[in-house]
Amino acid sequence: HNKKKFLEHVKVSELCQEYAECDTNNPCYGKVFVFTGELSHYKRRQAMQEVVNRGGSCKSSVTRNTNYLVEGSFEDIDVGVDGESTKQQVARKLQLDGYDIHIIPESVFLDMLE
Prior knowledge:
The chain is an alpha/beta fold and 114 residues long. The protein has three helices and four strands, in the order βαββαβα. It has a four-stranded parallel β-sheet with strand order 2-1-3-4, with helices on both faces. Helix 2 (86-96) links the parallel strand 3 (68-71) and strand 4. The longest helix is centred in the last third of the chain and has 11 residues, at 86-96. The N and C termini lie far apart (37 Å).
């Protein structure tokens, strides 16, 4: 069967907060998010915009500064033989190295937006 090879490409540098103020108590505030897989509730650009609107930031790749890796579905996406994306592999390695990166499903991310 055919799998999608590419997801929507989003330039994170193009995202700007749409509101003058944001809730500093929101769990997204001041945090760095990275997305992997295909989201079911939002397009990737929309999900990133939701983070930015809440005072967080988004990056295109996982680094030691990443706070959250949000996992979407990999049903129609090519991943490695172990079933994980490169972003997931990097996040797990950084976790083992002692970095505080949370790997969360999309449902937890949606709860954080509320």
